[in-house]
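Can anyone check this?
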Amino acid sequence: MALSKLDNLYRQVILDHSSHPHHHGSLEKSSQRIELNNPTCGDVIHLELDTENGVINDIAFSGHGCSISTASASMMTEAVIGKTVEEAQALSESFSQLVQGNDIKELDELGDAAMLGGVAKFPARIKCATLAWKALEKAMNNPETGIGESGFMKHEEDKE
């Protein structure tokens, strides 16, 4: 009984982030902008970051996607705002490991995003959950080319 109540709480938090996403929209000032899409399902994210001195001061996203994709983007923005680029990269890696079903030490640091660990049971949804995080990684790893860059999300089976 307690487990079903916990599952219901997780679902409610995910639905809330999907219905009322945090940091949804655009920024007046951004240092990196990127568009990434998931060709498997058609989800698209436009991510904007305002970084200064290696710290993510502000972040916003727009686009369209399923409830998991939107909720994950909302949760990601909450988790990384105010973090250094290095801290955000570590969180992104932790999130990727989590949704693949691996145990991680940084569960509390992910905030609400930790609730998406159950996505590991649904392999097709992993790509939805990681889209925003992959866009974040791409923007942080290519700060000089992040503005206006767009691309398709590559998946492990696509990389050769």
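Reply from J.R.: I decoded it. Residues 145-149, 152-160 have pLDDT under 50 and may be disordered.
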